[in-house]
Design a protein that fits this description.
Blueprint lengths: L1 E3 L6 E2 L1 H14 L7 H4 L6 H10 L8 H15 L5 E2 L3 H10 L4 E4 L4 H10 L9 E2 L12 H10 L7 E4 L2 H9 L3 E5 L17 E3 L4 H5 L9
Parallel strand pairs: 1-4, 1-6, 4-5, 6-7, 7-8
Antiparallel strand pairs: 2-3
Helix pairs in contact: 1-3, 1-4
Length: 220
């Protein structure tokens, strides 16, 4: 089974995450930030977005209130413009044609993940969709990855996990899976994927197929 992180790996959600952040900034009489400035933080949830948007950390008194405000805004716009990364549609079709199940393991809460997956037509195609609040410990712990294996009936050693953040690789390794860094994702200038010690790195989604010895299927 191939398991994917969601934001920055399977789906390009940066446009909607940034749109929500800029709506929040306007509420607080601040100018919007360019997408290019926000994009590297898009895989790090509200913690990362509030750091770039308002220079807030989890230890700040205002963080919890601002986080709740941001999530309420995002809840209204999360299906505005989500798009699959180039090659993802072909990759998923190829996996399905070859009867290789695929699923999603994300730290994104289920209240956002389920409608997002539904809006792009992937919810019923995935063998499993496990969210950050489905287990006591989200990534970098392996709990959600192991939960996905149990749901799909696949052993962890028969799974590959693809993600664009260090916590993805940490969780995959802790679960005993093959790990793959999606270099096309939301990596920032300070990220050091070579240090993460993943088993593989890919520049494009379809690069995964050569790693598992498959040829791309033709989309109908």
């Amino acid at each position: 089974m191939i398991l994917f992180d969601l934001d920055g790996t399977l789906v390009d959600t940066a446009h909607d995450l940034a749109y929500a952040l800029n709506l929040q900034r306007v509420r607080h009489d601040l100018a919007g930030l360019p997408l290019e400035a926000i994009r590297p933080y898009a895989s790090h949830g509200s913690k990362g977005l509030l750091s770039i948007g308002f220079n807030l950390s989890e230890t700040d008194d205002a963080f919890a209130i601002m986080r709740d405000e941001y999530l309420a805004i995002y809840d209204e716009v999360l299906t505005r413009k989500p798009i699959l990364f180039d090659g993802i549609a072909e990759l998923l079709t190829t996996l399905e044609v070859n009867r290789i199940p695929w699923g999603v393991v994300t730290n994104k809460p289920r209240r956002f993940t389920q409608p997002l997956m539904q809006s792009i037509g992937l919810l019923t195609r995935a063998a499993c969709v496990v969210c950050g609040d489905d287990a006591a410990r989200p990534k970098p712990y392996p709990d959600t990855l192991l939960m996905a294996c149990k749901q799909a009936g696949v052993s962890p050693e028969d799974c590959w996990y693809v993600g664009d953040a260090e916590r993805d690789i940490q969780a995959g390794k802790a679960a005993g899976m093959q790990t793959v860094v999606a270099l096309y994702g939301y990596l920032s200038e300070t990220d050091q994927p070579l240090v993460w010690a993943a088993d593989h790195m890919i520049q494009l989604p379809l690069d995964l197929l050569s790693l598992i010895n498959l040829k791309p299927a033709t989309l109908s």
